[in-house]
């Protein structure tokens, strides 16, 4: 019995490949893989050299604000004739320098097509600088004709000069710190109460530097506080409903003090 077990054990171990056997052939496989890689690289280089991987078609997505013919011509002049494997960071930087371009992506379609995806800067508010100028969500002033943006955008009226001038090596001017507060307030207000935004004429700052909005129809000044808070927006929704129901038109509503609401009518001293 013991002899049979010993023979079975020896048979089991003898059926397993030895370490030397398992290692045998690895150098050959490695050399084979290196040769395949080298041949693939050479083939790709040869095809690229022969023009197989040269960009021959550039497709740009449709745009609303940027003139499509201009953008298409710019992208073609920068990208056509280049290897599809090449680093396009410099070309990307040039396209991003365009005033109305926010983001750009290159999608390679092998062997010879490049798709350019451009995201435009979209006006979200109008800043009052004697004239109304559109700005995007990052505070950049956009040089657009009136027909290219909706006139019902909220108006930002800062107390001082509203922009920092042009950035270095850029054709874009941006809002200063105070005006950015107004822009952020308008964007937060739109997120919290988009249905109320059409009733707002402008966002401004009072003497204490608090965010103040003016309603469109009745011209009611509403002081929201240093920042736009969700509870203040809810109070405003409720109060405007009450004013409409009672037919009241106060001059001022101050929601900036925690735990109290101040309402000032025309006849109040």
Describe this structure in words.
With 269 residues, the protein is of the alpha/beta class. The protein has 2 domains: 64 residues, membrane protein fhac (Ubiquitin-like (UB roll), Roll), CATH 3.10.20.310; 140 residues, Rossmann fold (3-Layer(aba) Sandwich), CATH 3.40.50. Helices cover 36% and strands 23% of the residues. The protein is built from 7 helices and 14 strands. It is elongated, with a radius of gyration of 33 Å. The mean pLDDT is 84.
Uncertain segments are: none
CATH second-level architecture of the largest domain: 3-Layer(aba) Sandwich
Strand order of the largest sheet: 5-4-7-10-11-12-13-14
Strand content: 15-25%
What's the total number of strands?
A: 14
Major pleated sheet? 8 strands, mixed
Class of the largest domain, according to the CATH hierarchy? Alpha Beta
Shape: elongated
Integer-rounded radius of gyration: 33 Å
- Listing every helix as H and every strand as E from the N terminus to the C terminus, the arrangement reads HHHEHHEEEEEEEEHEEEHEE
Under CATH, the topology of the largest domain can be stated as: Rossmann fold
